[in-house]
Design a protein that fits this description.
Layout lengths: L1 E2 L4 H11 L11 E6 L4 E6 L13 H20 L3 E6 L8 E9 L7 H4 L2 H6 L14 H12 L4 E3 L3 H20 L5 H5 L1 E2 L2 H5 L4 E2 L6 E4 L18 E3 L5 E7 L4 H20 L3 E5 L6 H6 L9 E9 L12 H4 E3 L1
Parallel strand pairs: 2-14, 7-8, 9-10
Antiparallel strand pairs: 1-5, 2-3, 3-5, 4-5, 6-11, 11-13, 12-13
Length: about 325
């Protein structure tokens, strides 16, 4: 391994691309620290951005940080760097999620399969708009399944009966939120309305809520709730949404980080295939419901995310924190 001397500007660029990743309610629960003498970039969790009600075990927090880690790997490959990654490098420090050694490539050079995903980092946005009632070609589905497998995860496109079960679970979760106002506290904390939306650096601004659903069965979380949002409108969403389940073998912090990397790899691959995507963890925030979301045929794996995939608007970009707020140098 040959270490490359990276200046602060180069490291900041890598981190800026890493933080374009999705995270629950766009809370951006990550911190980075660069150890210059070792060419080592450390990824940590930011506990102040955790969601104790919606994500009591920090599962979603780890998934979001895993997605940022994958973007970092893609950005490094694009910059002709090798990013050797170690998950949970210090067991005594659970907030330290990954250590990434950055070095010059040797032998076969950079990872071109990662580098080709780089344009999709900035093109990928969560879409809360209707998608077309149009099937996804099998070769595209196969490419998305392969993307998940490369990160030690499984991507399943459920059959009609299984999809109905998922939609029922999501509706149950929505009803649970209506009956328990305390569960909406995290959502209110991380949404940005009115003038606040124009200056936000995190959270979900009102311009990214998408239209209200007049009809259709697509699972789209309504971030407005009962609050008024001007000029939002209502539209009919797809009646037969294309869903996909991302699963891992285990269900611990390392598995969640792998799930985040697999998720982002799938999302970037989908973006390059001109697909729009959105995510829902609504039915997965309760562990009992998560178990019911499994493939009824095999009952194997731990479902970590439900994806909605289709052809339609990609949605607007959402704000990101300035790099100087999430990156320290040592």
């Amino acid at each position: 391994m040959v270490l490359r001397q990276l200046d602060e500007k180069a490291v900041a660029k890598l981190v800026a691309e890493a933080t374009a990743a999705p995270s629950m309610h766009n809370a951006q629960p990550w911190r980075f620290r660069f150890v210059s003498a070792e060419g080592l970039l450390l990824l940590g969790a930011d506990p102040e951005r955790a969601m104790p009600r919606s994500d009591p075990g920090n599962r979603a927090l780890h998934i979001g940080c895993g997605a940022a880690l994958f973007n970092l790997r893609v950005a490094a490959a694009h910059a002709d760097l090798v990013a050797e990654t170690t998950l949970l490098p210090e067991p005594q420090d659970p907030l330290l999620l990954a250590a990434v050694q950055l070095a010059d490539p040797v032998g076969n050079g950079r990872d071109d399969d990662l580098a080709r995903l780089h344009p999709a980092i900035r093109q990928r946005h969560t879409s809360r708009h209707p998608f077309a009632e149009q099937d996804i070609p099998e070769e595209t589905r196969a490419a998305l399944r392969d993307a998940a497998a490369r990160e030690e995860a499984d991507l399943l496109f459920p059959g009609p009966w299984h999809a109905e079960t998922l939609l029922d679970l999501i509706r149950d979760a929505e009803c649970r939120d209506v009956m328990d106002p305390a569960t909406t506290e995290d959502l209110v904390r991380w949404t940005r309305l009115g003038p606040e939306a124009d200056i936000a650096v995190d959270g979900v601004p009102e311009y990214a809520f998408g239209p209200r659903k007049r009809d259709g069965r697509a699972p789209v979380r309504d971030f407005a709730g009962r609050r008024a949002v001007a000029d939002r409108g209502t539209l009919t969403f797809e009646h037969v949404p294309h869903l996909a389940l991302l699963s891992t073998r285990g269900d611990g912090p390392a598995d969640w980080l792998r799930a985040g990397q697999a998720l982002e790899r799938v999302l970037l691959e989908a973006t390059l295939a001109d697909l729009a995507t959105s995510l829902t963890s609504h039915a997965l925030e309760n562990r009992d419901l998560r178990l019911l979301a499994r493939d009824p045929g095999t009952g194997a794996g731990q479902v970590q995310m439900v994806l909605r995939i289709g052809y339609g608007p990609r949605g607007p970009s959402t704000p990101r924190r300035p790099v100087q707020d999430v990156l320290d140098f040592m």
